[in-house]
Amino acid sequence: MPKYSIDRPSTVAWNLSTAAYYKASGRPWKLEGIREGVCYLGIVFKRDPTESDKRNACCAAQLFLDSGDGVVFKGNVGPWYSETDRQFHLSPDAASEIVTKAIESYRAKSNGAPPSELFIHGKMNISEPEWGGFLAGASDGTRVTFVKIRPSSTKVFGAGKFPLPRGTAAEIHARSGLLWTVGYVPRLQTFTGKEVPSPLQVDIVRGEAKIVQVLKDILALTKLNYNACLFGDGAPVTLRFADSVAEILTAGPRAGEPPLPFKFYI
Q1: Confidence (pTM)
Q2: CA dist., res. 59 & res. 4, Å (int)
Q3: CATH code given to domain 9-149+204-265
Q4: Average pLDDT of the chain?
Q5: Does residue 215 carry a pLDDT above 90?
């Protein structure tokens, strides 16, 4: 089977047609078995080069519903970067506002009902005041969980011709695990990568959830990239376009704007 290549005419045609269909409000595909009432919020930060205060950064958020629909919105620009620990942390008020916007967006697409669970995906740790802000912005009955997702340097070498199958997971303990989102795909009978794949390190930092279910959700979210001809991405869609979307948001107007459908950004 020929390997995936971004410059194949078939790949270019697929990318263009799929993106155009999605932008026209169609849904190219839908995941099977997604849990109802659950939504996923990816949060990233982008430092603004036009700001005189080097601590200032824009908080970009991407919300994905159980249907696969996505919404993008921008949080406040503020002194979120800390020179001390070299990480970004929202103030309690800003964290509360982000979650409130996310739940309002969910309500608008679910006949006013709030989500039963909100999973927040990030690349860094969060502070106690930040976590308090996330909880304050949640609706009554909405359970909030913060999950830290980052690449791991772990390498596992198999005895066969191909690396570990995509979807392989290893539970480190009740709140941490490794997930191979890139690997051999039995259905395609091939591996499209060029080197031994590394897994994602997934940690439940705050809140209560089962690590196996969190890993399953993240693997499912790697299949919602409507902008590429891929069987599955190496990162969940909540974080996949985060840096690119943040670049767009920081280049836009400073005034607050309503959340926009994810299709505007692909």
Answers
A1: 0.89
A2: 34
A3: 3.30.420.10
A4: 85
A5: yes
β 87-88/81-82 pair status: antiparallel
Domain ranges of the chain: 9-149+204-265
Q: Kindly indicate the confidence band of residue 1, based on its pLDDT and cuts at 50, 70 and 90.
A: very low
SS (H, E, C) the chain: CCCCCCCCHHHHHHHHHHHHHHHCCCCCCCCCCCCCCEEEEEEEEEECCCCCCCCCEEEEEEEECCCCCEEEEEEEEECCEECCCCEECCCHHHHHHHHHHHHHHHHHHCCCCCCCEEEEEECCCCCHHHHHHHHHHCCCCCEEEEEEEEECCCCCCCCCCCCCECCCEEEEECCEEEECCCCEECCCCECCCCCCCCCEEEEEEECCCCHHHHHHHHHHHCCCCCCCCCCCCCCCHHHHCHHHHHHHHHHCCCCCCCCEEHHHHC
